[in-house]
Amino acid sequence: MNTLTDLKTITLAVLIGVGLLIQSGPTQAAESETLTVAGGCFWCVEADFEKVDGVTGVVSGFSGGTVSNPSYRQVVSGGTGHYEVVEITFDPDIVSTDTLLHMFFRSVDPTDAGGQFCDRGDVYRTAIFATGSQKAAAEQARAQAQADLGQDIVTPVLDAGAFYPAEEYHQDYYKSNDLILTRFGPRTKASAYKSYRSGCGRDARIKELWGAAAPFAS
Question: What is the domain count for the chain?
Answer without folding.
Answer: 1
